[in-house]
Amino acid sequence: MSAEVLVVGRPNAGKSLFVLNFAAFLGLRAVRLAASADPGAASARWVPLERARREWVSPLPYSTLEPVALRVVLAVGGRLQPVHVVDCPAIDDGSSPGEAIRRAWAVTLERLLTARVVLHVLDAANPPRPVDAELAAFVGPRAAYAVLANKCDLPEAAGAVRRLRRQFAPRPVLAVSAAANRGFADVARFLADNLPG
Amino acid sequence: MRPSADREPDNARDVIRWVEAGRLTPAEALGRLRRLDGRPAPPVSVRAPEDSGHTAEHVWREIDALVGLKEVKRQIREIWAFVEIQRRRGAVGLATEAQTLHMIFRGAPGTGKTTVARLVGRLFAALEVLPKGHLVEVERADLVGEYIGHTAQKTREVVRRAMGGVMFVDEAYSLARGGEKDFGKEAIDTLVKAMEDHKSEFLLILAGYPREMASFLSANPGLYSRFPIHLDFPDYSPQELMLITEQMVRQREYRLTEEARLELIRYWERRQAFWPENAGNARLVRNLVERAVRRQAVRLLHRGGPISRDDLMTLVWADFEESR
Description:
heterodimer, A: six-stranded mixed beta sheet, two-stranded antiparallel ribbon, 6 helices, globular, B: two-stranded parallel ribbon
């Protein structure tokens, strides 16, 4: 069973773009999009990365309603290891969204119960919300957990990383930009240090 | 949303079922799950949006820590007090004053205008006068285009980026350099329209040298009434430049020798005598300190031998001396 890394966060934090571009950074050229979370399923088909970006990544929130796992290969403890990076549906503070979104929330929460490694993507250009704090408080002690302060290339995000480090201490906060492909090496290092094996 | 008859969920599965059923928000569910783990609430790391006083205090500490700028600080405190009282009046249902808070900053380069603009943005965000309070810094070239209509487009794009925060236009008087082919006027008109259409959604600060800003405003009388707040940024005195130097050295976790300190005071005083127009420019401090840091590095490695923690931290006069 490959090790799993969950990628969670609020809507429009940039999870899907991060997962795709991070996978590309690790050498992935095409992705296998499966209808379910299992990339090994027979229904999976190979899709070039550029098309995956167009189909997956959307400015509309909740375009990911089911977890989507990408299989990448990472150097852990001197060995190359397959890892499933799972783009999870967003969770949010919210009042009365539809049933589909509530189910998506439930699915992500369920995954969090058994997660060993979690990356929490935040849009650094906007202040964190209570649900972000609750995520950190619940997951932090249970799993290897890091905050990815995303969109750090935007001027609105200047100074945000420092603030986020204070707010989320003692959890690590990594500055990334999924769009500009920045910070990926730090994330890879965090995963290499924290993945089992 | 909370049902009265059923038991509270006492296991993780039920908590999640309640989320799906719409009885718990994800934040509430995560809180429950955490308590089921037996963990206490963390010392507050993220403030709820209503609690803004806490951050306003942080911003005030930074404002107070700025060297000099006594009059600017006083004026900002006055604006802040006005805004805060209007907010409380609104909270208890009293009529509030409409607030135009756009500003003119008058001063030479390096006198703290951009720094204060940034802090004002954060302060207003903490007071919820602005949704985000970020700073977008532009100058003429960012607003003015090459043909009719281009300027309006460029300017509107910048305003869009600044929405929710502060738009800081440096050397604003250059928008009125003039002549018929000059599109600066188009930029000004677009800004004025944006101020009308997006009242209290962004803050506009026009900045520049005092004399030029005065001419600019008298040539555009319609503008004057839209900018009720005028802040003057005097040149820094040699003593203030010395304080800024010390602040910057401390912030980078270095220290000055006594000799360096004494010589630096004399350096700033000499500078004012030789070059009064640029003397009050705090950007010179950054250049000076950064150069000293580099020269220290060269000095230490060139000297060879072991380098102590004290060596690593100390800047001597020789590290500054050549920067004239």
